[in-house]
Automatic annotation (TrEMBL):
Keyword Plastid: no
Keyword Transferase: yes
PANTHER family tied to this protein: STEROL 3-BETA-GLUCOSYLTRANSFERASE, STEROL 3-BETA-GLUCOSYLTRANSFERASE UGT80A2
Keyword tags: Glycosyltransferase, Transferase
Matching SUPFAM superfamilies: UDP-Glycosyltransferase/glycogen phosphorylase (SSF53756)
Homology family: Belongs to the UDP-glycosyltransferase family.
Species this chain originates from: Cryobacterium cheniae
Protein name per its UniProtKB record: Glycosyltransferase
An MF annotation (GO) of this entry: UDP-glycosyltransferase activity
Length: 438
């Protein structure tokens, strides 16, 4: 049996997708990953075969910097970063307007490349990143059975009256202006219609007999795999989803890191707080600096993954802190009592697996809906990154460090259900129940 994984050339996407593939590897089956060169080392570390596939202009082996991107993509990244400084509606508007170049890059050319890869690999099962729209066009137009994986809040696949790019829920600390929200929704609807036209134009070239889509953002594979805990999702919304399985999480195993292991082994009774804004938002050194200011007043040890931010921007760094551009997140979450994050899917699902409450500072896309879900479950708090003060951060941190009672017990139960490679096992079972017909 052979599994083909189709992933964008981004570490944050490939890590969970490749982790799902470990269930096939453990069953003694072949796993092939189609992705770009930036993530080749990640594929090799998992012990999988790799075939070349470029799904977009950009790439990210772990930390993304605008100056390392191709011409055009560099300016797009700088525009995105600038938008996050202006506000949430401005960020979501920027992302909506960039959607076609981000998500449907050279659709016919990419689709034909994907179809050639499928013909060469001859997989029994295919899983593809839900946001790899050009690749999914290839599979749909050729009638290749597949599962697509949502690596984010489930609202990445809109249902009912939802519109892609418009958050269905907001955390309590966010109160966007009604007129601004109306304008944002109108932009998202316009982008949806234009994107669907592009999808249908490419689909017509690939399969002239295909039925056009009414909303390309609502298209999904033969089965939908949601890398997200069902416990954080509305049961009523779940009834609107197509055939699906909630995987919970896809937590990778990390290689030993001598410096981190030595830091963790330090004789100290102080609790550990882990801080990371992920591959993209680590550029927001101004917010990281406020987080560091708040943490310096608490009796904790701190591990900070600074990413694209120069550590000097954080201010004075206590001797007991561990500060590096990149840190093994899974390893550190296992020992942490609190995590401070932008609310990306990997951070949320990995923290839930380790039973770690979250202080979330969402900036963009599905981070708002994800933060609202964590907050509603009692597993964390969300604050507005551009306006929150160090004092407000400190108060929220102290509250979460003292998390107990029913919320603590519920988080521990969720953690127990997600451990032991539950996500890959659930993905393997779901695909085995839907055999491929290539």
């Amino acid at each position: 049996m052979t599994l083909l994984i189709i992933s964008p050339d981004y570490a944050s996407h490939l890590f969970p997708l490749a982790t799902l593939g470990t269930a096939w590897r453990e069953a003694g089956e072949r796993v092939v990953v189609a992705s770009g060169p930036a993530t080749a080392e990640i594929v090799a570390a998992f012990g999988f075969e790799r075939v070349h596939l470029q799904l977009g202009r950009g790439s990210n082996p772990g930390t993304i910097r605008a100056e390392e991107q191709p011409t055009g993509e560099d300016d797009a990244l700088r525009g995105f970063f600038d938008a996050t400084r202006r506000g949430m509606v401005e960020t979501l508007t920027f992302q909506a307007e960039a959607r076609s170049s981000d998500l449907l890059w050279n659709p016919v050319e990419v689709a034909r490349a994907v179809q050639l890869i499928v013909a060469e690999v001859q997989p029994d099962h295919v899983i593809v990143d839900h946001l790899a729209f050009s690749a999914r066009l290839a599979l749909i137009s050729a009638g290749i059975r597949h599962a697509d994986v949502v690596l984010g809040h489930p609202s990445a696949l809109p249902v009912g009256a939802e519109v892609y790019g418009f958050p269905p829920e907001w955390p309590l600390a966010f109160a966007p202006d009604t007129d601004d929200l109306g304008a944002l929704r109108a932009i998202c609807e316009s982008v949806r219609d234009a994107f669907t036209t592009q999808w249908n134009d490419a689909l017509r070239v690939l399969d002239p007999a295909a039925t056009p889509s009414a909303d390309a953002f609502m298209e999904s594979g033969d089965i939908l795999l949601l890398n997200y805990p069902a416990e954080l999702h509305s049961a009523a919304r779940g009834e609107l989803l197509p055939a699906h399985a909630f995987l919970g999480s896809a937590v990778r195993q990390e290689a030993a890191d001598g410096e981190v292991d030595a830091w963790l082994a330090t004789d100290s009774d102080l609790p550990i707080v882990y801080v990371s804004f992920g591959s993209f938002l680590s550029v927001r050194g101004d917010v990281l600096a406020r987080v560091a200011e708040a943490l310096r007043t608490l009796e904790v040890r701190v591990a900070v993954a600074t990413g694209a931010t120069d550590p000097s921007e954080l201010g004075p760094i206590p001797d007991s802190w561990l500060v590096r551009a990149f840190l093994p997140q899974v390893t550190l979450l296992e020992r942490s009592v609190l995590a401070v994050s932008h609310g990306g899917n990997n951070s949320v699902t990995e923290a839930m697996t380790s039973g770690v409450p979250l202080l979330l500072l969402p900036f963009s896309t599905d981070q708002f809906a994800g933060a609202a879900a964590v907050e509603a479950a009692g597993f964390g708090l969300a604050l507005a990154p551009n306006t929150v003060t160090a004092d407000e951060l400190r108060v929220a941190m102290a509250e979460l460090l003292a998390l107990d009672g029913g919320a603590r017990r519920s988080l521990d139960r969720l953690s127990s259900s997600l451990r032991g490679g539950a996500g890959p096992k659930r993905a393997y079972a779901a695909l085995r129940a839907v055999p491929a017909e290539l």
